[in-house]
């Protein structure tokens, strides 16, 4: 049972909320006037109210809106999102090293006055970038995020340290990379590549065993600073293993954050596919290493990409990444070009030589995290100077847009 307060707005709009004063109702339909209070039960009808839709909206969004008895909650949500489309932060995939490098970059930018944890109206996370996105949206200051990478938390005296969840089994790295190269070479389109990678993931599940999925979900949960979706917009990207279709999870998807990030980081062969409501998902990096196209409509886009647009020969042994073709539109350069044609100002930050050296050849190795984050922090302060120079030249909006 829920005690729901009904308030009347303009033009026959009614708001349903658990907040007696209606302070969480969208302002564009106000002023709101108290109308009545009702009790709703999931299994009992109420005249003039779609009980299931009302309670579902309140659970997900905090309120339910109707106009002439028709649900318009989605219109209010879309209007709210459109009003805050200034800065999008895109966090690409890059393994343990790329994850730490991005946190270092974000801390370095913040140190120099560009706090992306505050400035970003939307954060998009792909693969390991999905975990970084959860940290960026956690409310933890950038300096503390970096400190957590550089030194694990100290257990208070007298408390027993909980054992971290064990790492789930995976196929040998060399086997996975060889298979990914073969899939990329044989693919005739981006859709073909996604389907083949999905099939590889489903095939690997039987080898990894039934317990692997639960072990991996527990491991992902242990690495998140919060287990609930943040209030501010964030998207984590996954791919349907059966169809190859995009899955852009956010707080309105009806999916737990832990499940969304587990799906978004499930690299075929290295991790089991992740099941959500009967559908199995794989790593969003299979679609694109960055998925920067999801920032469409934002005035300013900042992309932190550990893998894309790497210049020069790669260090011996470093994986070159899944095949990307400009004609397929799944490479970062194509996505950035499309964003710029739409009017977005896009800044792309890739590892500089010092960061690349610190990240090593095996970017999945946890031992790379401390050196990669330190190098990222130093690079982030330099990038802040570049961003300030770019903005002062009139090529984008005011620096204040990134310093909120």
Q: Can you tag this structure with a few keywords?
A:
13 helices; single chain; alpha/beta; 404 residues; five-stranded antiparallel β-sheet; eight-stranded mixed β-sheet
Polypeptide structure, described:
- The longest helix has 24 residues, at 369-392.
- This protein has 404 residues and is α/β, with parallel strands linked by helices.
- Mean pLDDT is 89; it is low at 392-399.
- Helix content is 38%, strand content 16%.
- Helix 12 packs antiparallel against helix 13 (369-392).
- It has helices spanning 51-61, 73-82, 95-111, 116-119, 128-136, 142-150, 173-186, 190-208, 212-222, 257-264, 332-341, 353-359, 369-392, and strands at residues 2-8, 13-17, 33-40, 63-67, 70-71, 87-91, 122-126, 234-240, 246-249, 274-276, 279-283, 300-304, 345-349.
- Going by helix content, strand content and strand pairing, the class is alpha/beta
Strand content: 15-25%
- The total strand number stands at 13
Task: Please trace the helix and strand order, writing H or E for each element.
Answer: EEEHEEHEHHEHHHHHEEHEEEHEHH
What oligomeric state best describes the polypeptide chains here?
Answer: single chain
pLDDT < 50 stretches: 392-399
Major sheet: 8 strands, mixed
Shape by Cα distribution: globular
> What's the Cα radius of gyration?
23 Å
Number of helices: 13
Kindly state the percentage of residues in helix: 25-40%
Let me know the average pLDDT.
Answer: 89
Quote the distance from N terminus to C terminus.
41 Å
């Amino acid at each position: 049972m829920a005690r729901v307060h009904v308030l009347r707005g303009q033009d026959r709009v009614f708001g349903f909320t658990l907040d007696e004063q209606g302070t969480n109702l969208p302002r564009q339909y106000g002023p709101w006037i108290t109308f009545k209070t009702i009790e709703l039960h999931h299994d009992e009808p109420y005249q003039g109210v779609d009980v299931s839709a009302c309670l579902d909206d309140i659970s997900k969004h905090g309120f339910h809106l109707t106009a002439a008895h028709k649900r318009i909650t989605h219109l209010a949500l879309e209007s709210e999102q459109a009003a805050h489309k200034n800065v999008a932060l895109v966090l690409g995939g890059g393994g343990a090293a790329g994850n730490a490098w991005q946190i270092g970059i974000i801390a370095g930018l913040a140190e120099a006055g560009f706090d992306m944890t505050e400035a970003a109206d939307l954060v998009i996370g792909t693969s390991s970038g999905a975990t970084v996105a959860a940290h960026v949206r956690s409310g933890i200051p950038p300096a503390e995020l970096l400190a957590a990478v550089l030194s694990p938390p100290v257990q208070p005296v007298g408390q027993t340290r909980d054992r971290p969840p064990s790492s789930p089994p995976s196929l040998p790295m060399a086997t996975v990379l060889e298979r990914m190269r073969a899939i990329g070479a044989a693919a005739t389109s981006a859709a073909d590549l996604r389907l083949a990678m999905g099939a590889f993931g489903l095939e690997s599940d039987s080898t990894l065993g039934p317990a692997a999925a639960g072990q991996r979900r527990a491991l992902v949960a242990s690495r998140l600073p919060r287990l609930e979706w943040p209030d501010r917009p964030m998207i984590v990207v996954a791919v349907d293993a059966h169809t190859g279709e995009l899955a852009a999870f956010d707080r309105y998807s009806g999916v737990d954050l832990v499940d969304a990030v587990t799906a978004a980081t499930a690299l075929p062969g290295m991790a089991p596919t992740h099941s959500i409501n009967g559908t199995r998902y794989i790593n969003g990096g299979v679609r694109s290493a960055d998925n920067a196209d999801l920032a469409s409509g934002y005035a300013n886009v900042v992309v932190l990409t550990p893998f894309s647009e790497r210049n020069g020969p790669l260090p011996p042994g470093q994986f070159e990444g899944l095949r990307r073709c400009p004609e397929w539109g799944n490479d970062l350069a194509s996505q950035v070009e499309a964003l710029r044609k739409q009017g977005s100002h896009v800044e792309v930050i890739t590892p500089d030589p010092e960061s690349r050296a610190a990240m090593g050849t095996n970017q999945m190795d946890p031992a790379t995290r401390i050196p990669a984050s330190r190098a990222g922090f130093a690079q982030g302060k330099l990038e802040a100077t570049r961003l300030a120079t770019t903005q002062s030249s009139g090529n984008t909006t005011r620096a204040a847009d990134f310093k909120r």
